[in-house]
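Work Package 3 (structural annotation) set out to generate three-dimensional models for the target panel prioritized at the project kickoff. During this period the team completed the workflow that converts sequence records into discrete structure tokens, so that structures can be stored uniformly alongside our sequence database. As a representative example, we reproduce one entry of 631 residues exactly as it appears in the project archive.
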Amino acid sequence: MFLAAVLVSVVVLESDTSVGMGFVQPDSPLPEPNPATSEYARQFDVSMEEAQRRLDLQFEMTELASRIAEQEPTFGGSWLQHKPELRLFVAFASPDGEKIISPYLDGINWATSVEVRVAAHTIKDLQDVQERIIQFVPQTDIPFESGIDYETGKINLYTPHLEELQSKVQLDETIKGYSDSIEYIYQERMSEPAVLKYPYLLGSSALTSCTAGFVVVRPDNNRRAMLTAGHCENIQYTTDGIYFGLTGNENGWLENDPYPDPLVGPFGEDMDIQVHDASVRSLDLTNEIYTSVGSTAKVISSRTKADTRWVWVCKNGKSTGATCGQITDIAYAPTYAPVPRYVRVDSSAYNDIACGGDSGSPVFQSLSGGVAAFGILSGVLDKNCNGGNTYFFYTPIDEINCAGYSILTTHYKQYFVQNVWWTETSCTEYKQELDSNGNSIGAATSQPCLTGLPAGSSGTIESYTAYELGNYWREAIWRGGAGYMRDVPLNGNGAINWGAAPAWSYCCTGTAPRAQGAYILGNHFYQNVWWTETNCIEYKRVLDNFGNPGSQTSQACGTSAPGSGTIQSYDAYPVHGKLREAMWRNNVGYMRDVPLNATNTNVDWASAPAWQQCCTGNPPRAQGGDILTQP
């Protein structure tokens, strides 16, 4: 017996022992050729045995480097050399590097493969300067990308405008002091995210009949929600076909539509907004909007309409894209809402400055470092776009504030959060920031778990899972042949509210499956359940508009297991346009990223890459985690 949709045995594979990996030298060759080993052998012209030795050794080397980086304030970077032999280089912004590293090499049999270098600056200093450059030179002025080359000890700036960027950077005296450590590299175009629409839902995203506006903060619990125009249909979907979230007065989310008769909402003709709870599909909300195709900016402030006449503002909508004009009237009263509370924007530079479908678009002013929110588009002269729409009007921030909502201006990041049970009495919570591609940034932080075992339970922990489901952190555990589960509330900032955690609910008894992983894609809940090494079943449930799973269907899994021997754990969770799978089998860890389909609603199993071995050792007793969006 198993708990459908909740009891999932999860492990996430990392290259650091701090997140559940114990790296040891294999006692014997792998039972089957490993693609990563074969490719390494080909690339560096070594035998399979030597390739495997190096791949195992590099984990130990990077683990050592990570420990030095955490503990030594003069750390200046580290890097590996693969030809002609595998070596680890560690740099220090100190002439005493050999003395500093000596204690770390005691008892290491490959200590002669480590070389020390002298760096001009610490990595922390370079990171601080890089951040200062990013803040001092906004992307709206000069497009550029940046990175740090540990080996050369330089900040690399990639841009199509080399001289302009260099001149701008040199204006800051603090940055100027690091001139010798900044490299300017010509790059014709800036990078684009591989998948723009997942997992974040940004302002200006196209919906079924309208456009998403700004993210707002709900007054009673500080939760985030998404705006669009109140006259739009209540049921909206993203272009991926994913349900947009609750609106109307369901669970208190506001709708105010001045168009019908009688009016909808408590504010009559004053405003034209509706607020959607996107958490029912775990769509993450942050303070970013699309300012044009492929370009984004952070919302760093909001501005009421007073003294904004003649201000140049823009909007970005699904029908006409990015268009701009001047505010000509801050007391505009359209016919369908004849109160002087709207704001009009005029421009004759476009055949149509806005059209039907642009309703809800964010109206903004570009600033250094981001944009200021002015309101959301409400109407135009002719929604059918026959030419001649030289103006649009919008609901200003004043009215959104009157409704009790505030524009979100705090920047949110993504973190992978996991609880790792080493024993029944030892659990550690790890947290690590992710970059825009879902890869780890920096070192993980850790603390004792704030979760606990079910009261009255006893015996061995057989599996544990924890993942985000709407506004809750769902936990489920098998212990001693009994299953338990609970939903722990998330705070408005995305943090887990352990202080409000309810008691565990006993649900069932029986034998847990060998391993399983669960995830939400679009409007469905999925889970892959491994009953044996050769029997895996995919279970699928449609989610209703409140995020509750409905009836279940099943079929053979689209995934498959690598290696041989006993499957010890399996995990699968979506991250930035791919399904990340990880498996422990016979004390060997594997992982891979399987692409999602074009609409991010299903897994493209036909394009699944080969599994890659990452590590060997004893896995933790049980662990579970997911991605949370937090400040």
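The mean pLDDT is 84.
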